[in-house]
Amino acid sequence: MRTAVLVTGLSLSLAACGASTRPGDAIVIPEPGSGPDCRTDANAAPNRIVCQRNPQSPTRRDPATAPIIDIDRAVVVAIDNFDETRDGKGRGAVYVQDVSSNAPYSGVSLYRPTLMPASATPAPGDVFALTGGKYQENTTIGTTVVFPAGQYLPQLSYAAGAFAFEYVPPPPAEITPAMLADWDTGKGYIGMLVKLTNVSIPSWKDDGKGRITGAMATGTNAPAMSNELMDLGQSVQAHSTFRSVTGVVTYFFSLKVAPRSSADLAY
Q1: Which of 166, 182, 198 marks a domain boundary?
Q2: 155 and 82 both lie in a single domain
Q3: Which partner from 45, 107, 110, 150 sits 20 to 30 angstroms from 56, CA to CA?
Q4: Residue 152: burial class (beta carbons within 10 Å; 0-12, 13-18, 19+)
């Protein structure tokens, strides 16, 4: 028997789910994974992000083939509207996770998704059913960007997203800078909401093109805080220690944590 969650009082269109749109109506939404569990059943489709991203998943499809996958329910954790480079190229990414999960490999970024209804503005906490997405683990971008051997940027490209219901992002996974400094561990958190405590950033770097980073460890590819999702101006850079930093893990030659707003930073 399929289990379900009960959601009431939605005003956005749920036509894609076959639900009534009258305020106050009770809307029954199937829970993700209420069919075969792709985390344990090798015959199930990889209908959760973790089932495709986790290298140990029994239902993972070969990323080299750019498989088309559907995700039952994915919740938005962040939308990149900041455009730190001020050229229109640094915005547009949508970061999603499996609903209610902060397990490693449960997040991914969406590249050029089509979210419906088109009239609605997606926000953190919105849940979408994603179909027709091409899963890629990009080792290059174009012909000029080549990532270090063994490293990649996971993305779900060109997915169609049908709005399902309003919910909340999962609680951030609690990790350390050392976990992000180790690629084999840190890659599992790409696209996910995380929280680090007692963070030290001795200095900040401005690349002259709008990108601001503050290294949280030593080394060439040390993990850093970045301004991909919000302005890290002088009021932030004046600090070298943080009680906690919450943000989305991103990747471009190294792993970074991108806070979404000032609420993600505790001094």
Answers
A1: 166
A2: yes
A3: 110
A4: middle
Q: Is residue 219 part of a domain?
A: yes
- CATH number, domain at 91? 2.40.50
Tell me how crowded residue 16 is: count the other CB atoms within 10 A of its CB: 16
Handedness of CA 33, 35, 40, 46 (dihedral sign): negative
Domain match, 261 and 196 both: yes
Give yes or no for residue 62 having a pLDDT over 90: yes
pLDDT tens profile 230-262: 999 999 999 999 999 999 999 999 999 999 999
- Where helices occur in 31-151 by DSSP H, the ranges are 49-53
**Beta strand segments in the chain, E:** 4-8, 26-30, 68-79, 94-98, 107-111, 114-116, 126-138, 140-141, 145-146, 153-157, 160-166, 173-174, 193-200, 204-206, 212-215, 224-226, 241-251, 255-258, 265-266
**Both 204 and 85 in a single domain?**
no
pTM: 0.86
Residues 132 and 207 in one domain: no
The yes-or-no verdict on residue 48 having pLDDT over 80 is yes
Is pLDDT above 90 for 112? yes
| SS3 per-residue string spanning 131-168 | EEEEEEEECEECCCEECCCCCCEEEEECCEEEEEEECC
Instruction: Compute the distance between CA of residue 80 and CA of residue 258 in angstroms, rounded to an integer.
Output: 10
- Extract the tokens encoding 131: 């179909």
Please write the tens of the pLDDT for every residue from 5-46.
333 332 333 333 333 333 333 334 444 445 678 988 888 888
